[in-house]
Amino acid sequence: MALADPPTTPVLPRMEQRWREMPRSSWQAPVERVVVGRWTGATGSEEECVAESDCHVLEVNLRSTDVRLTEAENLVHDGRVAAGSVLFTRAGCRLRAVYRSPFDLLHLFIPVRRFEALLREAEIAAGSNAVRYVGPDPIVTRLALSLLGTDDMEAGGSQLYLESIAQAIVARVIGRDSAGPARSPSQGSGLVKWRQRRVMDFVEANLADTIRLQDLARAAGLSRMHFAAQFRAATGLRPHDYVVRRRIERAQDLLRESALPLAQVALGVGFQTQAHFTTVFREHVQETPGRWRQLHRPV
């Protein structure tokens, strides 16, 4: 069931060897991978770097600080920076910072092609500024803090989680700063009826299979981000929660009306194992599948 839950292993960003230097263990990572790093320091720290030529950087301030920041010879900022503020830096920029108070920075190193894909997916038009501050933003802060716990970024589940958080931060930051984002006519409202019906028909036809968020968005004819927001506005449920609910309801029908073994019921509604099916069923119904069948089979 592939509509992303947070990783069970906490995601702890690797500490950088130098300010804004991608963590060394990530150098051999695939080109399209988003990498997260962290850099902390004390008063009086002077930092300088040239951004990687193939990566944009989003820097989230996890605490307020006082900094003078220049790009080449241009002053970007001089003064207090609130927690939750984000510094966006395009690939190849030369930065220099003088921190006058302690700082704690989270860096998302986003490959240029991956960044552009995130913008297209979110239907956002990026501005042209090479360096800019955006914020503070409590939503960005919460998203960034959700990354402070993974120690296994090589794992596929953790990387998927990181990608989803990166996409949310990019959309939030660049979307707020964009002068002319492209919008679908129905953005910000609930899913129109014909799109909603197509999605629900798709779910019904595929309950025995893996259903991904992009599959549902494709059925609706929307980007993943806009689909998820509009679906929730229309139904009050996240797409993942709706799919799980329909799996459980279909399972109840099979338990009530057939004599199929529990393992076959589980497979028939999209669960890979009977144990996982039992766990999710109990969470939703407060009974195990076997007990529920005993209580609800026709006499």
Automatic annotation (TrEMBL):
One of its GO terms (molecular function) is DNA-binding transcription factor activity. Residues 197-295 form the HTH araC/xylS-type domain. Keywords: DNA-binding, Transcription, Transcription regulation. It holds the Pfam family HTH_18. InterPro entries: AraC_XylS_family_regulators, Homeodomain-like_sf, HTH_AraC, HTH_AraC-typ_CS. PANTHER family: HTH-TYPE TRANSCRIPTIONAL ACTIVATOR RHAS-RELATED, TRANSCRIPTIONAL REGULATORY PROTEIN. This is Transcriptional regulator, AraC family. It comes from uncultured Sphingomonadaceae bacterium.
